[in-house]
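Severity: low
Component: inverse-folding endpoint
Summary: output formatting inconsistent between runs
Steps to reproduce: submit the following structure tokens with default settings.
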């Protein structure tokens, strides 16, 4: 089963490569022997991260300063990738931002900024890297969306709308580019600890309360997301396109758990599990600590 993904030697470009998920996705590609193109806003940091990755895993990695909303910078990154590697096999769109606001207060400038990065940026990078894949007759696009593309992340302005747009854009690309051998899929995370979400988890009560809404009773790790990305980026998912993998610990299926139960909806589930000997809660504070971590 070793090298099951067969990503060795593939050229994989990752936007938002310096972010919580981006870093782990790049590392997982490198662990699998793929060559990596790291794309993010800070030139010095992205080049240093590429050098570190190459040194640690013995692969070829290049770092390139690229604002995903800037057509010229994206095209320059594509040209540099082709010059350095001769081709691009995989693009992972990860670069995203979040601005909190109630819909009635949301400034138009925030609406436009988030739309620009989260949707327009995904489009520009997909189009420009995708053109090279079309020429080569093969390629895989993976877009980090979110479960909040299906149900609104309230008080987060345009965020959910942009990700719903990403889902449809991915389906469009899958339908139009399938004949060229290019696939496009989404990964839909929920509740993952990264710099983007760090402030949420500064309060242990938030972690506890969120964990109880998740079937697996834990917050997601960046490795959970990277694993799903690897599958969709590899030829192991060759007959999957225009689709998505939810990586949410079952959160999307928990509506039934929100309904009233004898003794209170949460107490009922916790007591029931406790009586079954399932030790999901480590101490009296009730902070979620899954026993397998
Ligand atoms: N963290 C979560 O719980 C969560 C849940 C669901 C979906 N997501 C999605 O996952 C993706 C990654 O999230 P994260 O938590 O790793 O975020 P993060 O804030 O840690 O990283 C985002 C990265 O994108 C880069 N970036 C921002 N704007 C850019 C631009 N215009 N061009 C190029 N790079 C840019 C940033 O510099 C940063 O390195 C995002 O698309 C986010 O919407 C996150």
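Observed output (run 2 of 3):
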């Amino acid at each position: 089963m070793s090298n099951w993904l067969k990503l060795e030697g593939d050229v994989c470009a990752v936007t938002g490569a310096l972010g919580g998920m981006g870093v782990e996705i790049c590392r997982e590609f490198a662990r699998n022997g793929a060559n990596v193109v790291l794309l993010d806003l800070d030139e010095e940091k992205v080049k240093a991260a590429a050098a570190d990755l190459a040194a640690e895993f013995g692969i070829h990695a290049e770092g390139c300063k690229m604002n995903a909303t800037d057509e010229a910078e994206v095209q320059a990154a594509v040209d540099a990738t082709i010059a350095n590697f001769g081709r691009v096999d995989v693009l992972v769109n990860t670069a995203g931002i979040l601005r909190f606001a109630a819909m009635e207060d949301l400034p138009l400038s925030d609406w436009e900024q988030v739309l620009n990065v989260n949707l327009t940026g995904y489009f520009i990078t997909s189009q420009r890297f995708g053109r090279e894949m079309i020429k080569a007759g093969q390629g895989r696009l993976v877009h980090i969306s979110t479960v909040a593309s299906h149900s609104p992340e309230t008080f987060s302005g345009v965020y959910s709308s942009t990700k719903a747009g990403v889902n449809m854009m991915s389906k469009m690309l899958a339908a139009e580019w399938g004949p060229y051998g290019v696939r496009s899929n989404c990964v839909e995370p929920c509740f993952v600890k990264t710099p983007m979400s760090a402030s949420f988890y500064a309060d242990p009560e938030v972690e506890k309360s969120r964990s109880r809404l998740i079937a697996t009773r834990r917050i997601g790790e960046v490795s959970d997301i990277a694993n799903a990305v690897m599958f969709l980026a590899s030829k192991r998912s060759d007959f999957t396109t225009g689709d998505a993998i939810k990586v949410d610990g079952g959160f999307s299926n928990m509506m039934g758990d929100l309904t009233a139960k004898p003794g209170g909806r949460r107490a009922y589930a916790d007591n029931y599990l406790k009586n079954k000997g399932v030790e999901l809660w480590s101490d009296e504070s009730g902070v979620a600590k899954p026993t397998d971590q």
